Amino acid sequence: MKILLCLFTTISFSLFAATAQIPVSGMTCTSCASAITKSLVRGDFQDVKVDVEKKMVTVIIPEKKLFSKMELDEMGTKMKVLIKEAGYQASDVTWTK
Ligand SMILES: [Cu+2]
User: Fold this and answer.
1) What pTM was estimated for this model as a whole?
2) 60-97 pLDDT, tens digit each
3) Disulfide engineering: 27 pairs with which of 14, 32, 65, 91, CB 3.0-4.6 Å?
4) How many angstroms does the Cα of residue 76 sit away from the middle of ligand 1?
5) What are the b/e assignments for 21-60, b being 16+ CB within 10 Å?
6) 27 alpha carbon to ligand 1 midpoint, in Å?
7) How close is the Cα of 55 to the center of ligand 1, in Å?
8) What is the CATH number of domain 2-96?
9) Structural domain boundaries of the chain?
């Protein structure tokens, strides 16, 4: 029963393509934005938008496939690590379609 419930939860959180929004503190200018973008692109996230004023990083995952909750969590963690490596503090990732 626990396994079934777990499976259901995983499937119900699946999405077609996905957009990640990550609040990031510490960035103040365009060179901050480009440092964050470079780090994410190096980590294989190609579609990155940084809004310095709103302190928000948006990453679009273009593949038209289903992502499990676990896959989204893994990608989110990787994004946060890459942002941290660039020298900035990332908050929790919010996923939308
Ligand atoms: Cu800066």
Assistant:
1) 0.81
2) 997 667 888 899 999 999 999 999 999 999 999 999 87
3) 32
4) 23
5) bbebeebeeeebbebbbebbeebebeebebebeebbbebe
6) 6
7) 12
8) 3.30.70.100
9) 2-96
